[in-house]
Amino acid sequence: MSNDLPVRPDTPCVAVCSTTFDEICRGCGRSVVEVAHWVAMTADQKEVVWQRILAQGYPRRNT
């Protein structure tokens, strides 16, 4: 899978960090655990997260 992964930014972070109401960041759509472990995740693991958050309409700016 890794060889055919799309080119993505290093992180989905958009500097709109808020998990006030639940465990999902309002800016990037990642869970608190995903944010905390992002740097240690493999490219395949990150791609799974990317696909989910993009399908959910993230990353979002100013929302």
Structural key phrases:
DUF1289; 30% helix; single chain; 63 residues
List the SSEs and their pairings.
Elements: H1 32-37, H2 43-55
Protein name: DUF1289 domain-containing protein
InterPro entries: DUF1289
Helix-strand topology string: HH
Described by strand count, sense and barrel closure, the largest sheet is:
none
Q: How large a portion of the residues is in β-strands, by DSSP E?
A: under 5%
Mean pLDDT over the residues? 91
Structural class comes to mainly alpha
CA-based gyration radius: 11 Å
Tell me the number of helical segments per DSSP (H or I, 4 or more residues long).
2
Please give the share of residues in helix. 25-40%
Low-confidence stretches: none
How far apart are the first and last residues' alpha carbons, in Å? 33 Å
Shape category: globular
Count every beta strand, where a strand is a DSSP E run of 2 or more residues. 0
In brief:
The protein is mostly helical.
Could you please describe the fold and organization of this structure?
The chain is mainly α. It is built from two helices and no strands. It has helices spanning 32-37, 43-55. The longest helix is centred in the last third of the chain and has 13 residues, at 43-55. It is globular, with a radius of gyration of 11 Å. It starts with 31 loop residues before the first helix and ends in an 8-residue tail after the last helix. The model has no long low-confidence stretch (mean pLDDT 91). This is DUF1289 domain-containing protein. InterPro entries: DUF1289.
